[in-house]
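user: can you give me the structure for this one chain? tokens are fine.
assistant: on it. calling the predictor now.
[tool input]
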Amino acid sequence: MLSHIDLPALGTTFPMPVFIIQGKEDLLTMPTVTKAYFDRIKAPTKKYILLDKVGHDPNPLMVDAQFQVLKTQIAPLVHD
């Protein structure tokens, strides 16, 4: 995947919160690559979450982490 996507070309400045949830065992999108990109990001809020025993494909640990970020980090930011 790294050979096809230039993450910095997608942008590094975002007007909204940015959360990257990364599997520590991901062999397609290496944590070192996503962390380096994350470190360059400028956003009002940002968080890098590295999950043990998680690879690239969705699994219960990843889905649970995504739900927790939505519930605890993003939902409080949403205004009616």
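assistant: here you go. The first helix runs from residue 31 to 40. Helices lie at 31-40, 60-74.
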